[in-house]
């Protein structure tokens, strides 16, 4: 693999999030000569991850599995085995990915916990960078809605069909959720912090609501970049503009901590999206340049759109190229509108 030389010491980039968007960015960053740390949410309670979490009380492994594969230098066949998901007619293993089972087994061995298990697995999988679970114990995502009601559990919150006011996390063991010191050190020493792309309330904010993670992100000297979603999301960000996404992040951390926002301004072709397959996506996020600038953000607006399989995604290569350019730009630089 050819790495691009940035003519400097390896810049330190910390990417925080979860879901399907995180591996897209990490796969792109993996092509560059940068020191990557992925901080991965551990508040997922759905799918194979949720079943494993309920039965053996470990951190849900699904997002961690996908991140490990994105940063692995193993031969492709080994990655495919790690990602293989058993068919639904295999009753005992139905729906489980092999990688999820391996992560769960390692975390249970010798009571080492998920953090140490992932570090050992990172070595075995020849990971180029660092993969850190946001917490060593499973977390529960809690939400209060604008009607005053509350719910616990990421999947329940998304399915409630209500407008979320704010979210917070609690630990299944009753202790105050905290990230390992390695996570905090990576954030404080970073040149660039990248949030997203991913579900605002259920992939990004669960990490930032861990008190020492949120504090580190507020205090770091790194440039904090938010990659705004292209589509609004059912049960989370219905009718949100890009400025409202940023407003929610800033409000949760109590200050305007987002330095730069990457927003897609390329229109999604009408009737392209398969709304049965991607039923959680509603409409394209509206662009509000004035609302973003009022929050002190530098705004990078461009065509970050990738259309594939009747779905709408970020173009990982285009996004990462912009992240690399930002490493060489002073933060006082004003992008204005680039489209």
Automatic annotation (TrEMBL):
As for family, the record states:
Belongs to the gluconeogenesis factor family.
Q: List, alphabetically, the HAMAP family matched.
A: Gluconeogen_factor
**Subcellular location(s) of the protein:** Cytoplasm
Q: What is its main location?
A: cytoplasm
Q: Which keywords annotate this record? A: Cytoplasm
Alphabetical list of CDD domains matching this protein? YvcK_like
Highest taxon of the lineage: Bacteria
Record's function text = Required for morphogenesis under gluconeogenic growth conditions.
Name of the protein described by the UniProt record: Putative gluconeogenesis factor
Q: What lineage does the source organism belong to?
A: Bacteria, Bacillati, Bacillota, Bacilli, Lactobacillales
């Amino acid at each position: 693999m050819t790495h691009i030389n940035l003519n400097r010491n390896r810049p330190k980039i910390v990417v925080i999030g979860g879901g399907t968007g995180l591996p897209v960015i990490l796969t792109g960053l993996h092509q560059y000569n940068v020191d990557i740390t992925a901080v991965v949410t551990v508040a997922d309670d759905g799918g194979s991850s949720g079943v494993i979490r309920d039965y053996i009380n470990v951190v849900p492994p699904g997002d961690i599995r996908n991140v490990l594969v994105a940063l692995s230098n193993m031969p492709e066949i080994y990655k495919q085995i790690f990602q293989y998901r058993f068919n639904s007619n295999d009753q005992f293993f139905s729906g489980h990915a092999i990688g999820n089972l391996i992560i769960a087994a390692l975390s249970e061995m010798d009571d080492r916990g998920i953090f140490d298990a992932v570090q050992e697995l990172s070595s075995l999988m020849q990971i180029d960078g660092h993969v850190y679970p946001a917490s060593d114990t499973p977390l529960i995502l809690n939400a209060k809605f604008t009607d005053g009601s509350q719910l616990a559990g990421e999947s329940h919150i998304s399915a409630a069909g209500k407008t979320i006011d704010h979210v917070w996390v609690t630990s299944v063991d009753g202790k105050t959720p905290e990230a390992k010191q390695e996570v905090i050190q990576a954030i404080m020493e970073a040149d660039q912090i990248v949030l997203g792309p991913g579900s605002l309330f259920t992939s990004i904010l669960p990490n930032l609501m861990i008190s020492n993670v949120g504090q580190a992100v507020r205090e770091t000297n790194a440039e904090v970049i938010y990659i705004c979603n292209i589509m609004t999301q059912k049960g989370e960000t219905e009718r949100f503009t890009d400025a409202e996404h940023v407003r929610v992040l800033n409000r949760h951390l109590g200050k305007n901590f987002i330095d730069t926002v990457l927003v897609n301004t390329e229109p999604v072709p009408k009737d392209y999206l398969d709304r049965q397959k991607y039923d959680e996506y509603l409409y394209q996020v509206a662009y509000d340049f004035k609302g973003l600038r009022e929050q002190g953000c530098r705004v990078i607006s461009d065509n970050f759109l990738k259309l594939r399989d009747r779905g709408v995604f970020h173009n990982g290569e285009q996004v990462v190229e912009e992240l690399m350019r930002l490493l060489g730009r002073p933060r006082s630089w004003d992008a204005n509108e680039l489209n």
